[in-house]
Specification:
This is Secreted protein. Keywords: Signal. With 183 residues, the chain is mainly α. Helix content is 46%, strand content 3%. It is built from 8 helices and 2 strands. Strands 1-2 form a two-stranded antiparallel ribbon. The N and C termini lie far apart (36 Å). The relative contact order is 0.22.
Length: 183
Amino acid sequence: MNTILRKSILGIAGLAFTGGVFAGPVAAHAAETTKPAAVAVQGVSPQGEQSHVDLNDEQIANAKAIIAATKKAGLPERAAVVAIATALQESKLENLGHLGDRNDHDSLGLFQQRPSSGWGTPEQITDPEYSTLAFLKGLKQVDGWQDMPLTEAAQTVQVSAYPDAYAQWEKQAAEIVAEHWHK
């Protein structure tokens, strides 16, 4: 698929994320910011300052569900890192329902996908496996996603109003995948 057509399709699918999403889930969670990572994680050096949140059992279960769905899709660990970093940015790995006044769109779930943008029904996109597979389907359509910076790969799928925000979660996402991929 040519690049312009791919970006148009992904842009339409993710257009919904350009407003409202960040006023809700991001503002609702505090993140601890640390200095840029000095060590490469899984062979990739995270870009910029890295953030970290302490995860509860539900968030860890959601991360494990993302890893399981990535394996089911036959994709490598790097895809799980991109997916988990995206979910950390979008929802802090919480399977969010409708956020009411804190969200002026119909974004739901781990990836803040919108039913009105064709991601699936509310029931589907609040299912961690379904929403991960939907995200990964978009990721697979990004030519060269394996070799591009994480934030660029995630942004091409999500089309966020804050395209560089995904990078801050790369180190934590890589650590989560390293810990749970072979379990």
